[in-house]
Amino acid sequence: MDLTAKETAPTSTRQLRADQDSSVIETTNRNNADDSNYRALAEEASSDASERTRAEEIL
C-alpha cells in the first residue's frame, strides 16, 4: 500500500470540499446581489408607475 497516496487523499478531499463550499458561497452571494438588484428595479418601476398615476389623477 502506498502510504503517500493514503496521506494525501484526505487533504485532497478536504481541499475539494473547501473549493466546492467556496464555489457555493460565491454563487449564493451573486444570486443575493442579483435578487437585491431586481428588487431595487421593481421598487423603482413601482414608484414610477405610482407617480404617473398620481399625475394623471391631478390632471
TrEMBL record:
Regions of compositional bias (Low complexity) in chain numbering: 39-48
Report biased composition (Polar residues) as residue ranges. 9-31
Q: Which domain of life is it from?
A: Eukaryota
- Provide the residue span(s) of the region labelled Disordered: 1-59
**Where are the compositionally biased (Basic and acidic residues) regions?**
49-59
- Mind telling me what this protein is named? Uncharacterized protein
* Species of provenance: Letharia columbiana
Q: What is the lineage of its organism?
A: Eukaryota, Fungi, Dikarya, Ascomycota, Pezizomycotina
